[in-house]
Sequence to fold (1150 residues):
Amino acid sequence: MNRFRTPLLWPLAALVALLVFNALASPGFFDVEWKDGRLYGTVVDICNQGARVPMLLALGMTLVIATGGVDLSVGSLMAVSGAVAAVQVNAGASLGQAVGLALLLCSGLGLVNGVLIAKVRLQPIIATLVMMVAGRGLAMLLTGSQMVPFKHEGLTFLANGAVGGLPVPIPLVLGVALLAGVALRGSAWGLFIEATGDNETASRLAGLPTGGVRLLVYAFSGLCAGMSGLLEASNIAAADPARMGDTRELDAIFAVVAGGTALTGGRFSLAGSLVGALLLQTLTLTLYNQNVPPAVAPVPKALVILVVCLLHSPKLREQWGRWRSPSPA
Amino acid sequence: MSGILQLHGIEKRFGDFAALRGVSLELRAGEIHALMGENGAGKSTLIKVITGVHAATAGTMELEGRAIRPGSPREAERAGISTVYQEVNLLPNLSLAENITMGRQAMWGPFIRHGEGRRRARAALARLGVEVDVARPLGACPVAVQQMAAIARALEQRARVLILDEPTSSLDAREVAELFGVLRRLRDEGMGILFVSHFLDQIYALSDRITVLRDGGYVGTWEAAALPRLELVSHMIGKPVAAAEACAAKEEASAGPRRGAVVEVAELERKGVAGPFSFALEAGGATGLAGLLGSGRTEVARMLFGIDPATSGSVRVDGRVVSLTSPRAAMAAGFAFCSEDRKVEGILPSLSVRENIVLALQASRGALRRLPRAEQEALADTFIKALHIKTRGPETPMGALSGGNQQKCLLARWMAVQPRLLILDEPTRGIDIGAKGEIEALCAELRRGGLAILFISAELEEVVRNCSRVVVLRDRQQAEVLEGGAISLRQIMETVAAA
Amino acid sequence: MNRLFSSRLLPLLATALVLLVLFGAAGAHYEHFFSARVVLNLFKDRAFLGVIAIGMTFVILSGGIDLSVGSVMACSTVLLASLIMERGWPVPLAMAATLVLGAAFGGAQGWIIHRYGIPAFLVTLAGMFLARGTAFILSSRSLEIRHAFYAKNSAWGLPLGEGLTFTLGPMVFVSVLAVAMVVAHGTRFGRNVYAIGGSESSAALMGLPVGGTRIAVYALCGGGAALGGILSTLALGSGDPTRGMGLELDAIAAAVIGGTVLTGGRGWMVGTFLGVLILGTIKTILDFEGSLDPAWLRLASGGLLLGFILMQKVIAIRSRET
Fold:
């Protein structure tokens, strides 16, 4: 009984259903080929593209949403990260310097979100909305609002290289997820995050550093956005400050909500969010395969997220319950 | 004098819980009628039924002889019943005039006649003897003026019945006097006024008749002039005066090793809220805080645990002054606090029983020194067994437990950190009799283990039964400290009821 | 009393001051900045933003937010263009249909927000994608509108002499502003919006129609976005599914810079007007300073947004303490 209530069930079921549909609709969907020391195939592509943006963003967003907040600035922070790295390598910096600086800056900006929310006590949407505007501006400022192409083997390798036959982003995101999982569940941070999201007042009165928890999750979200920005820039060997990461925050929220973490905060599941992100990526690809133009793809995504949220809504459940068992008034 | 509002056998159930059990009440035109009762007596539920927030499960209501059944506050207001809440339920961002006329503005076609609205608001306030600039935003006015605006709104709605729910809790003495003058004037004009307050002085100063509720049931209605204070208190707490003589401190309460004062509280005060308080807490001893609702019981606890820190005074632990500026600081000083508001300040409903129990201990260890899972489970198991917590298992979500079992989990949470002082605010509220007894027994055991307990309860008997020292509070101040043999229900009641 | 007065109007005064300083500094620095043409262009350029920002102000006043306006506007331009060019609808009918659909879309969002208690930002974020995607479904490319009505009216306006005209866009903007000011200040609906933003529970206890007002506010905002779309087709002569990206942020920024508090219940329509002018002035300055990076526009609006939010926070804390 209990096993069927795991948050992973629904997103996994949806993912399997989509995969089956694809397998039937486009033969060769599951074909995987080994060439030049790495794997090629549609499934690998889904994982690779899923790892590059939605999965990484979802990792950070999961923790933010678990505390009962939201981070709308991740798309802009991706652009910041890409811009920093591109400008740095073009100026002759080493890969380590460029990557380090980009990640440091993004975590710092995430921390600023955290300070505005935990200390100044702005609402999360408002604080991160400001960062969304300002972050985009910063990215454009760093690059002079131009697309900045770069030629740097190390940086390009991040998204295009392969490790153990798999494109780098896949092991990378799995590593980050594993590390985050171990760090959160091996320490008490995971418990603290869930407690803060479940009942902030009670957590504070039990002596939890709820302010610190908030700072941490927003900084981590910034860091994840930073990594994702690096991979996106690496993928096209350029930083596109105006468009990179644009509207990706919805993808992240989609992955988290579809993965079984409630928008109201509390229990979170990193694995669920990863599955949610894969689901999103598969959906995107399915739409593409069905010749839905990419610009139209957001429509079904938006519908799915609305439906999932409606299913989570206590008010709808109440009405549903009333409809199923008309109570004696 | 005629009954303007009559309630017959009002009953209100929330699921299995009966918040009101057959309450009848008659409010006459031209009287001020006090509604009294301790926490959970059903006062606010009754008011919500009258004002249409809740629908009664059974019973009837008549306003001026016509049966009514308001389905919303708006309908109640239209019928002529207006309410002034403690937390003034008006709009802080709009002007006084708008708050008074909102929903019934004078119109010119589709447009509001703001000038006419201001004139009507000024007139309504003038009837109450208040002269203010009605264009000021409500939020910028003192609470007293906000309350007057709420009453003016009732007048503007042509209310026949005015309900005031603890209107005086944030007013100073002069403002209270002004408010009472206004209420008397309205009474003399024929309005029926239902008045809820915890201050006995105010009840006796203002009301004509008094109705007492207890545990959702109707206790009785008396002429205020014919009801001695002591008797009123005894009706409220449900103990006859005669029986109170017999109930004195039990020997058991003073048992346990006495090791001198661990915590000394000196002149502790939060300006404008409560205080000053001075008392000592001993290892192995239980000190009770007794007083009626609103007497400052909870405020003391919140000061000691650093939630609403004191503005002056000091607290010493083992002779050293400690700083209590936050819950974390208070925990570092060895304090633990079980809040009276279990739902908002205690439980984490979607986390497991185990996680709820280890939370405070984990917090005091810091995030990086995680308690190993096996130890967490052992700890949870120990407490579940020791406190007889009824749960499917340690992984059941806290929200699925009954109130009494949640309370035991919260006790376990604090026992796990092995504090020097345990502050229990209403630890037995809203839980069944069996669990109450168990929790009291647990307290006694903790004391024998050398813990100091600060025990806060609205049930005076419980305080008498469990405490070796009782600090009696009245009007958010310390009234008296009783020790050992001097502790008796009668003594506490007399102090509480003193003018 | 004096201090109180100043703290209430402080945001509006600060906004006016920022506008004056910006405009003054620009006028001192650039030749020809102080000219009727610059001011007129500013109005013309920002007219559609102004209309949308006014709708947004209503939503924010009610304590909500609408992130879908930019997409709804884009969708409206394409819808209008395709109705006129591909279906051959008469222009006025096509415009009316666009307005109605925009309002219906907004109203539907408001209904979901109210009925199911889903956060406004999420519903309207989904709405943003729905509307943008729908725009692309209608047409993946920019659709030029070639029609006698457009040829006649795009340049139509009140002649102001010296070859300047007060064109239709600014005219609509100013009229919408005037109507919005009257509605917000002088009608029951307007006051109910403020009431819900001030305290939803109090408004309900006072018997005000909370649900209806909320749905109407989002419908109004959707209608405003559609009207903004219509204005932009008049100004640019085409419908384009990519138009208005990030416009929701400009609209929010204009409202907040104009003194509307993001938590709802406090603000002025005229403040939004000033906010639109400030954003327009910054843009004009960037245009004058051809070499200056457009990134500054983003940074400046982000900075102004944060500055004004923090000022509101400080004022809120100070007024609670007194």
Summary: The interface with chain C takes residues 72-75, 77-78, 89-94, 98, 102-103, 105, 107, 110-112, 114, 136-137, 139-140 of chain B (CB under 8 Å). Chain B has two domains: 3-238, 246-497.
